[in-house]
Amino acid sequence: MNKLYPLKFKPIYKDKIWGGNKIKTVLKKDFSPLPNCGEVWVLSGVKGNQTPVENGFLAGNELNELVEIYMGDLVGEKVFEKFGNEFPILLKFIDANAWLSIQVHPDDELAKKRGLDSGKTEMWYILNAGENSELISGFSKKVNQEIYLQHLKNKTLKDILNFEKVKQGDVFYMPAGRVHAIGPEILLAEIQQTSDTTYRIYDWDRVDDKGNSRELHTDLALDALDFEVHKNYKTQYRQKFNETGTVVDSKYFSTNILEFDRGIKKDYSELDSFVIYICTEGEMKIEYPIGNINLKFGDVLLIPNEINDISIFPLKRSKLLEVFIK
What we know:
The protein is mainly beta and 326 residues long. It is 14% helix and 36% strand. The longest helix is centred in the middle third of the chain and has 10 residues, at 145-154.
């Protein structure tokens, strides 16, 4: 069997009622013209939405096909043991030109009760934002189901929600159960469990071009919601120049950040997981034992588990997210 190599994937573009044009203008990703391109799925094993390989001899093969063939060599022995032939991470870029619906995702326990494969915990890394851009993360005050439903009925839900101003480089970890919404002029990278289950709570009384409202999932969302109020919703992390820093460390995925202007060597021999690189600034050359590949802003690369030695050389000052499963 031929040796595995770092893999790039052909993205899947999604038209959304709230979508904008930053995927094209900021990320510089060309796509067949969509009037409101709100999402691009850059690494996906979701059934019916699998991303195919773009480079090398595996070009055209879908992500889960590779997992089935290469198993632990691609994803890591323990990861394969746990998740089988489904790649466990879904990675998207989201461009909001208007507010997304206020929504929530179920956790693993509730998902399994409802016959779903998994819940949906995610994190957001802000790539670009307007001067006054904000998003919703969690509740701003202690409420229970009864108070929440009253606000929902009276269309005063925003009175009990936590609004956060955002800027480039901000991170928000969104555990399953946390109410949330992305606001206008925000372009972000979303790292999440492989799941496409969303319970829409409120959609700002929006209608499509035929005058139809989008479906709401009020009852399904009720059991999924976590009403706990937290002191901080924004993820605090420390970034040291030319060093790898931890941003999120959870059982679903771990994400590190690296800002650098000189070569960095990576040894993944103890990891037993695939690694995903997301270039969030600049441009770099990735060297591995049998070749090299370039990454620029907006590019995503999947490093198979069997590749342990990586050298990263920035062509200019650059920033990289590094995602894996412990």
